[in-house]
Design a protein that fits this description.
8 strands; 10% strand; four-stranded mixed β-sheet; 2 domains; 256 residues; 10 helices
């Protein structure tokens, strides 16, 4: 028991080197703390080291909390992770990306939207409602059946018409989620880390026949039909504008 406690304390102490503070230490399991630590170290590595990481994010408080139906909430100096939901390296990096965006007044996601040729226009989205070729959801929103999750441009709660090819989209997609997912994709793509299977799986699912379940999330959808919206040239995510955008954002952090 003592060993267990001291190892948790040790993780919390080493997180201080990343300017990460843990709130409500008693609400954490050792496994989750370890996952948090390794995910933060992974992100710092991709950013070019701990100094870049802390310069980028400053001090961040991380806590387990009741976040309603969400998995997490991110602010400019705080992340609230669901007290009951499962933690993954993907979700930790996704939330850290939101903090990075928030620290910059949410301008990174705005720039990503511009750079990829997207736009947010709820009125335009309304005009697409019910048009079979353009609207892949129900009239009131997404439905849990193939071809109705709301993946086409503008078919989401925000009227977000993504440009170029994101790795995926659904009813909750908007430019902020786009930025966070793009960062997670960047951290996993072409590497061999806990994000890589998800990053590659998100792209490879578009090679699946329609109405089959993807191996990452277990969702049956018309993947083949969606390839033209999401599958990058030659299946190579580095050919996308999102990869280019995150790459250059990180270069800037590195003073390049
Ligand atoms: Zn998010």
């Amino acid at each position: 028991m003592l060993v267990y406690t001291s190892s948790m304390k040790q993780i919390i102490t080493s997180l201080r080197d990343f300017q990460i503070k843990i709130a409500g230490e008693k609400n954490w399991l050792a496994d989750d703390l370890e996952l948090l630590h390794s995910s933060i170290a992974l992100f710092a590595d991709v950013m070019g080291g701990r100094e870049n990481f802390t310069r980028l994010l400053g001090e961040v408080l991380i806590e387990r909390a009741d976040v309603g139906s969400k998995l997490a909430l991110a602010y400019k100096d705080r992340i609230q992770l669901s007290a009951t939901g499962r933690l993954s390296a993907w979700s930790v990096i996704h939330e850290l990306a939101h903090v990075w965006d928030a620290k910059n007044g949410w301008k990174l996601s705005l720039k990503l939207e511009e750079f990829t040729g997207g736009l947010t226009d709820l009125k335009l989205s309304e005009t697409k409602k019910g048009i079979p070729e353009e609207w892949d959801a129900g009239l009131k929103g997404a439905e849990s059946k193939p071809g109705f999750y709301g993946r086409k441009p503008g078919v989401n709660a925000y009227g977000y018409f993504y440009g170029d090819k994101p790795s995926g989209s659904n009813w909750n997609f908007n430019r902020k989620e786009d930025f966070a997912e793009s960062v997670a994709m960047y951290c996993g793509w072409g590497r061999n880390n806990p994000l890589s299977r998800t990053a590659h799986g998100r792209i490879e699912r578009y090679l699946l026949p329609n109405r089959t379940k993807d191996p990452i999330y277990g969702i049956a959808d018309n993947w083949s039909d969606y390839a033209r919206y999401f599958y990058p040239e030659g299946g190579d995510y580095t050919k996308t504008k999102r990869w280019e955008f995150v790459e250059s954002a990180i270069q800037r952090v590195n003073g390049g």
